[in-house]
């Protein structure tokens, strides 16, 4: 297994082949970092050549993880095996496939004093639960109503324990709803991707409630730069929201997409269903703490981001390349 020899500017991205992970890897490479990606499958063809890629289907308990952590000075952990929607199908499985893995990584990293920073990616869209607040800051109560959110919050508590008891320099980041190029549709997470793919595939798109839910949509490139900002300048032991501070309903997202679809000759087939009990009505994040500590702020407007995302999906659709 080929790994970098220079610890000082080497970052390990666990889950770096995923949707957000790809963007994080690009951000790190642009900053001149050496990057080691740990993924469960073989190296994707789209992965940059200069990335050190380690396939590790066995999870956190394998010797490979220890070898990689010994060769890096920074860790960003994006790995997670479920989504908010799928977590309801088997809540016990949601715990078993996510919680032990995260704690094992924390336990191992805490034994390695050369690790300068560890960033664990939580979920700003699920850990807070129902709220009447128009914008949610990090001091807001956490009362998740999905197994996914409950497990994410539990892992945050373990992260805090390792910071307090073993001085693991860990930061937790709570992103809002990421969207953009490379997001997979039809997986129960990512309304923008599913809406676009449904239009292009001629599939019916379901809206739960007349307007759907209100969510804080952040382009994946901004999510990546925020995560890297937390890596470089975030304070160990802290939790940071990563959002835009602006909410859009599902119907408003559709209204942004409709003229793009019409111009390209596509139609939207929409079906409205009753609201679902497990959907949080509104979730919009206050990102000022991350801005104050790291200088980060979102750069991609929703107008620009939705246009870029639409164009990417259209290009893939035109060449019959899978999402």
TrEMBL record:
Which family, according to the similarity comment?
Belongs to the NAD(P)-dependent epimerase/dehydratase family.
What does the organism's lineage look like at the top? Bacteria, Pseudomonadati, Bacteroidota, Cytophagia, Cytophagales
Alphabetical list of InterPro entries matching this protein: Epimerase_deHydtase, NAD(P)-bd_dom_sf
* A Pfam family per the record: Epimerase
Name the UniProt record assigns to this protein: NAD-dependent epimerase/dehydratase domain-containing protein
Q: Please state every residue range assigned to the domain named NAD-dependent epimerase/dehydratase.
A: 12-243
Kindly give the PANTHER family that the UniProt entry links to this protein. Answer: DTDP-D-GLUCOSE 4,6-DEHYDRATASE-RELATED
């Amino acid at each position: 297994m080929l790994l970098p020899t220079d610890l000082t500017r080497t970052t390990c991205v666990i889950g770096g082949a995923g949707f957000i992970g790809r963007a994080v890897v690009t951000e790190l490479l642009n900053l001149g970092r050496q990057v080691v990606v740990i993924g469960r499958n073989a190296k994707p063809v789209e992965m940059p050549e200069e990335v050190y890629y380690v396939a590790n289907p066995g999870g956190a308990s394998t010797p490979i993880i220890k070898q990689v952590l010994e060769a890096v000075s920074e860790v960003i952990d994006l790995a997670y095996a479920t989504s908010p929607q799928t977590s309801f199908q088997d809540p016990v499985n949601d715990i078993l496939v996510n919680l032990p893995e995260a704690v094992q990584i924390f336990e191992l990293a805490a034994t390695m004093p050369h690790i300068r920073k560890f960033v664990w990616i939580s979920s700003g869209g699920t850990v807070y639960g129902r709220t009447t607040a128009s914008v949610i800051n990090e001091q807001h109560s956490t009362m998740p109503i999905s197994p996914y959110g409950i497990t994410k919050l539990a892992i945050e508590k373990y992260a805090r324990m390792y910071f307090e008891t073993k001085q693991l320099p860990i930061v937790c980041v709570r992103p809002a709803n990421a969207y953009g190029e490379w997001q997979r549709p039809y997986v129960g997470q990512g309304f923008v991707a599913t809406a676009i793919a449904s239009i292009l595939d001629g599939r019916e798109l379901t809206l739960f409630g007349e307007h759907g839910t209100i969510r804080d949509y952040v382009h994946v490139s901004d999510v990546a730069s925020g995560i890297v900002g937390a890596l470089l300048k975030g304070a160990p032991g802290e939790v940071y929201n990563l959002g835009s501070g602006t909410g859009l309903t599902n119907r408003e997202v559709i209204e942004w997409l409709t003229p793009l679809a019409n111009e390209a000759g596509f139609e939207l087939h929409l079906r409205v269903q009753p609201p679902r009990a497990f959907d949080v009505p509104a979730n919009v994040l206050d990102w000022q703490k991350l801005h104050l500590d790291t200088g980060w702020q979102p750069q991609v407007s929703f107008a620009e981001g939705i246009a870029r995302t639409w164009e990417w999906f259209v290009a893939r659709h035109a060449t019959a390349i899978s999402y």
